[in-house]
Structure formats: C-alpha cells, structure tokens
Amino acid sequence: MKLLFRKIQDLIQTTFLGTRRAIEDVVVSMVPQAVSVVTGFLTSILVARGLGPKGMGSYALILSVSGLAAALSDLGISQTAIRFASRAADNHDREGQFAVLRWAFRLRMLLVVAVSLLAFIFAPVVADRIWHEQSLAGFVRISLLIGLFSALASIPTIYFQSLKRFKMNAVVSVGQTLAAFVGILAIAVKQSWSIDHVIWVSVVAGGLGAIVFMVLVPRDSFLRSRDFDRPLSSLPMGLLRAPRLDSDSTMDKTGANSFAFFMVLSSILVSVTLRADVWLMGFFLDKADVGRYSVATRFTLPLVIVLGALNTALWPRASALVTLEKTVETMKKTLKMSVLLSLGAVAYSIIAPLATPYVFGSTYAQGILLAQILCIRYCLSLLICPIGVIGYSFGMVRVYWVINLLQLLSVIGCNVFLLPRIGAVGAAWALVVNEIIGFVLSAVFIRRRILEMKRNESFIVKEISTENP
C-alpha cells in the first residue's frame, strides 16, 4: 500500500511540471484570477440584472473595442519581453533584463496611443454604421482609457514574471480587481445603473492598479534618461529597436526583433479573431442576443483562470528551454497536466451553465447551450496550451501567424454562415472550430520539427564518429 501511495505521489509531482516550485507558481498565479473570476461573476450578475439584456449587449460591444485597443497595444510585446527578460534574468544579466523591459514599455506606449487615437476617430462610424446605435460612440471613447492603463501596468507585470515572483504580481492584481468590484457594489447599492457609470468604474480601477504597479518596480525597468542621449536622427528607431541578447539555445536562434515581428503578426490576427464573434453578432443579431451571449461567456471564467495560470507559470520556463531533450520532457509533463485539467473541465462545462436562469434571471435562460459550447471551447484550449507555448522553443513563432490567419478566416466564415441561420450559437461553434484548427496544425508542425531536429542530431553524431574513429 505504501508503495502504491508513493507511486501515485510521484506521478502527481511529475505531472504537475515536475517541481514543487512550479506547482506553487501555478497556484499563486491562479489566486488573482480566482479573485477576478469570483468578483467578475458577481459583477456580471449585478450588471446583467441592472442593465438588462439590451444594456448588457451594448456594454459588451463597447468593451470589445477597448479590449481590442489594449490587445493591439501589446501585439505580442509582453510575451517577447518575458521570453528574453527571463533568459537575461536566468543568466544574472540585470542590465539586459531591464533593457528588454524599457524597450517593451516604449513600444507599448507608442502603440497604445496610436491605436487609441484611431479608435477615437472611428468610434462614431463603428457605432452608427455597424452597431446602428450612434450613442455608443462616446462610451467607446471613454473606455479607451482602460487600454492606456493596461499598457502602463504591463511592464511591472513582465518584471515580476521574468523574475518568477508571481506572489507580488498576484497581490497587486487582486487589489486592482477588488477596487473595480467595490465600484460596482456602490452602483448596485445606489441603484444608479447606467452604461457610463459601469465604464467609469473600470477606468478608475485600471488607473489605480497601474499607479500601484509602477511604484513597486525599479525605475530603470521602464525609463532611463541616458537612453535618450543619442543623435536626434537615430532617436526614433534606436528607442524602438529591441536590445541584442545572445541566445544559448540549440533549437531556436530567433532574435528579439524577429521574434517580436512575428508575434505582432500573430497578435493582430488573434485579437481580431477573439472579437470577430461579438462584432458580427452586432451586425447580424439584436443587442439582446449579444447580451445573452456575453452572459454565457461568464461561465467560462473559471476555465480562463486555469488557462491563464498555466500560461503564466509555463511561459518563463518554456522561454529558458535551450535543448531538445529538456523541451520534449517539459512538453510531456505539461501535457499530462493539461489532459487532467481538461477532463475535469468537461464536467464543469456541462453542469455549471444549467444555473443560468437562476443566477442571471429567466430572460437569460436561452444562454444555457451557448455557455456549454463556450466552456467546451476552453476545454480544448487547456489541452492545446502546452503545445502552443512550448512550440515557441522550436522556432514555431515563424509559423504561428499562418495558423492564426487560417483560424481568423474560419471564424469569420463560420459566423457569416451560421449567425443568420442559428443565431448566437453559431458564434460559439465558430470558436470551437477555431481551437480544433489550431490544435491540429500546431501538433503537425511541431511533430515535424522534432523529427527534423532528431535526424539532424543523428547526422551530426554520425559525422563526428566517422571523423574520430
């Protein structure tokens, strides 16, 4: 019996990333997301009941624009920075780590200002011609501040993750989440429900979180005055060019600039893909249908927590992988964990959405099937996560943008075909198709890459043996 118990314990330890520290990092990374999902779920209940289906639909459309602005201000910069800052930190290169963080900060601020300016200009056009509700333009413009504060808070987040200090990152994130929740509670107590009040709460909470984040990190991690001590003609490109860092990886020699370029392509495509459903529903369906769809997505929040925690803990570790053997070993371990998580998530996906009419009200009862399909989509995401993240160590960054483009086209095609026929359920099925396409293509390309590298290693060993009999 003791032997059996020991074997089970060893299996659990090796499955969950192989070390106690890694398991702790996943759990700690889940804390702010757990707080976020609890407060977010309660917030969605209050907002859904306070604004009603139509108001909830308008609110979802507004946030889709500010969310896109925030995403396009990143364009993979955060992931690139974590990757190379983690490598520098592991090599005890503090200046190299800070140089990456400063580069990411400058680029993110430039992008968030540029994207927000474009969104500010075109907000009336989108609200009038696509959503058929001109009054939403002003709310969209206010919500753009959320993206600005998100960009400001990103560098401290990258700093803590690159050092694998997930606890500090969790503390600040929890504080920001609770600030937003307190604001919503205040609106509920006063019964002063309106779209602009809800949006202003998010803006203020984001601003407070950004300020606290910036205070907690060294100033050199986001700004250094002597970076500007260079000829005026070379200043713009010099500030936006990623620092050169040596890579000791035997698998992927992609530099920071090239990596960032391909991440930009992928990030643009993914950002549009994840919001194409709401935009197309805004064109094809009533605002009430969009509101029910938005409520249905709230049941995916626990799965988003687990997925986000797994990504947060895995990304800096995957970035430090430099050999084929270690990379394959890490992928196998994380795949075991993701399979277990996916199986548990399936049960949740079927049962939890049944509570929709009791939690949000009878007007949202049509969203049960929607919520179940959307949750199943995240079950697939949990299964794919290790393959996608560790695939970057195989140089897959050069391929992922092609896969993302195919996913975008499939999502748009499915929505255009299904929305007029089966309503919002069609948008949910489009996201399931999106995950399946990504999983199949990524697995095929990574398998080919592994086989190619193994053949190359065998050839090199054979050549060495021939030269040194």
Order of helices and strands: HHHHHHHHHHHHHHHH
Distance between the first and last residues' Cα = 51 Å
Strand content: under 5%
Helix content: over 70%
Inertia-based shape: globular
Q: In the residues, how many domains can be counted?
A: 1
Overview of the molecule:
The chain has one domain. 81% of the residues lie in helices and 0% in strands. It has helices at residues 2-15, 20-72, 77-90, 94-130, 136-162, 166-190, 195-215, 235-240, 256-284, 287-297, 301-319, 324-351, 356-360, 368-390, 397-422, 425-467. Helix 15 runs antiparallel to helix 16 (425-467). Mean pLDDT is 76; it is low at 1-5, 15-19, 231-239, 246-252 and 459-468.
Helix-strand blueprint:
Layout: H1 2-15, H2 20-72, H3 77-90, H4 94-130, H5 136-162, H6 166-190, H7 195-215, H8 235-240, H9 256-284, H10 287-297, H11 301-319, H12 324-351, H13 356-360, H14 368-390, H15 397-422, H16 425-467
Helix pairs in contact: 2-4, 2-5, 2-6, 2-9, 2-10, 2-11, 3-4, 3-5, 3-9, 3-11, 4-5, 5-7, 6-7, 9-15, 9-16, 10-14, 11-14, 12-14, 14-16, 15-16
Name a few traits of the molecule.
469 residues, mainly alpha, 16 helices, disordered N terminus, disordered C terminus
